[in-house]
Automatic annotation (TrEMBL):
<dbReference type="GO" id="GO:0046168">
    <property type="term" value="P:glycerol-3-phosphate catabolic process"/>
</dbReference>
<protein>
    <recommendedName>
        <fullName>Alpha-glycerophosphate oxidase</fullName>
        <ecNumber>1.1.3.21</ecNumber>
    </recommendedName>
</protein>
<dbReference type="GO" id="GO:0004369">
    <property type="term" value="F:glycerol-3-phosphate oxidase activity"/>
</dbReference>
<dbReference type="Pfam" id="PF16901">
    <property type="entry name" value="DAO_C"/>
</dbReference>
<dbReference type="InterPro" id="IPR006076">
    <property type="entry name" value="FAD-dep_OxRdtase"/>
</dbReference>
<comment type="similarity">
    <text>Belongs to the FAD-dependent glycerol-3-phosphate dehydrogenase family.</text>
</comment>
<dbReference type="InterPro" id="IPR036188">
    <property type="entry name" value="FAD/NAD-bd_sf"/>
</dbReference>
<dbReference type="GO" id="GO:0004368">
    <property type="term" value="F:glycerol-3-phosphate dehydrogenase (quinone) activity"/>
</dbReference>
<keyword id="KW-0274">FAD</keyword>
<dbReference type="InterPro" id="IPR031656">
    <property type="entry name" value="DAO_C"/>
</dbReference>
<keyword id="KW-0319">Glycerol metabolism</keyword>
<feature type="domain" description="Alpha-glycerophosphate oxidase C-terminal">
    <location>
        <begin position="470"/>
        <end position="594"/>
    </location>
</feature>
<keyword id="KW-0560">Oxidoreductase</keyword>
<dbReference type="Pfam" id="PF01266">
    <property type="entry name" value="DAO"/>
</dbReference>
<dbReference type="InterPro" id="IPR038299">
    <property type="entry name" value="DAO_C_sf"/>
</dbReference>
<keyword id="KW-0285">Flavoprotein</keyword>
<feature type="domain" description="FAD dependent oxidoreductase">
    <location>
        <begin position="25"/>
        <end position="354"/>
    </location>
</feature>
Amino acid sequence: MEKLMGFSNETRQENIARLQDEELDLLVIGGGITGAGVAVQAAASGIKVGLIEMQDFAEGTSSRSTKLVHGGLRYLKTFDVEVVSDTVKERAVVQGIAPHIPRPFPMLLPVYDDPASTFNMFSLKVAMDLYDRLAGVNGTKYANYTIDRAEVIQREPNINQEGLLGAGVYLDYVNNDSRLVIENLKEANTLGGIIASRVKAVSALYDTAGIIKGVKAKNELTGEKFDIRARLVINTTGPWVDRVFALDKSKSQVPKMRPTKGIHLVVDETRLSVPQPTYFDSGMGDGRMIFVVPREGKTYFGTTDTDYEGDYRHPKVEKKDVDYLLKALNKHFPKTRLSLRDIEASWAGLRPLIAGNSSSDYNGGGANAGKVSAESFAHLVKTVSEFNEDEATRADVEQAISQLRTARMETALTPSQVSRGSSLDVGENRLITLSGGKITDYRKMAAGAMKLIRKMLKDYFDVDSNEIDSKKLQVSGGHFDPTNVEDTIEFYKTITMEKGIPEKRALDLANRFGSNTPRVIANISKIEMKTNSTLDLAERLSLYYAVKEEMTLTPVDYLLRRTNHILFHADKVGKIKESVVGEMAEILGWSSEQTDKMRTQLDQVISETELNYLKQSKQKQLIG
């Protein structure tokens, strides 16, 4: 069958018809990063795969992360060598398969003379040296180094100077989480996957033996319900994994989830300027660490970590979340005096944590993590130092880790202590569930699931599939040499400028679309310039491509997830939002009623992102 090149609303409608008419080898429920990873690998393996997502792709957890592909240095505060090794290796794999998305951006970690600090200067250097060996960046321009107190202050004049000793600088990567999802799904589409957003799995379908054979689904745009038949079904719905549809609990082996909420706040760089991503102890006595990241003329910071039992579809930033982050920020940058009115945008997301898993969260231990004894810690630091000098073996390090003694045992897990580990389970009814994990691990999680899926298809249905090397499976937009990113992006920028697009805007397109940039700018002939539009040519090309080849169905899809405009360009959004609504209405053929509905929805999302409900509440309190 001819591969579908477009990925549009028309594609969605065709795919819904196909999902009703054709039996699949595999149905993936959930269009976040985990489901997208499974779908692209399944399609590349020659498996007839379908994927449904009840919202827009990445609308849940996968567009609400810290937007970094972490290397896991924080694991080294407990010297969890295995976790760091896996994380930095997988980070390099992700950069190879999506080279236009994760970008290296060294992280600054200030160190203070404080007994509660995660690191002192010596232990940080030991940890960073080990980290670089595991990451394979020794002797490169990304190798770690330390700077003294004076240089930290020179780089970040607004930083808290009391007790400041110096800082370490080590490699990390910035990421565009929702772009990573859509590029995986576009590649899956090109490889023959049958993919549709805004289709909800309502209930499971079983055969006479009680084996799952598909789902009853609902088209969320029309209300129509229909059956999808599939030999195998995999649940990759993140925080929803244990409540995705009515399951026979006696037959379904689904992990109990304990989602936690994390929020991020955005301010203009004129209010808080940092030269590079900065990572520091919260200073709140809770064992957490805070990221502060410069991006596109803004600075964002986060994150919180609290248990969540509310509406999974719509986690909100609450006053206590904002108060926590502002308190932590103002403690470390006391000259800034940030307040609620400085916040231009925000986002709240849920982490798909698995309850009962007792290892530390990848983003910091909790207050009850237990204290390492001075003797065992000193022995461990000495052993790791020797390992870095090739005077000790990895086995020596692992033995030193096993000898760590804690002052007290954990009695109850705080939200920060619930594991970011993943889980792959199969119930008696053959429902496969892939849950937990984090963005950095998505490819590896999917590869593990695919090994099981291929075996089940062969054993139960005698369906053969191809074994692929998913470490080499580049996603849409990423089909170029990952060791030559800068020159490649420069080339795409140049050919975009030749179409009359200014350099900065050409670079924006090249960075966003990577090897798809020629397809984006080829649409110039299809776009009529409008004198009343507030969109420049680059924006109009981006929007047209997003609608036609990224299944963008609403202005919010475009302005929040296909781009980051709502998050990092709040001032620009106010000027272009009406033109975006108007152009989408024209391309998608909306009625005036639909157009008004989309406009209202967009205004509501922008208002909530700007935290107007909190700002107005505070204003009322002041007046009262």
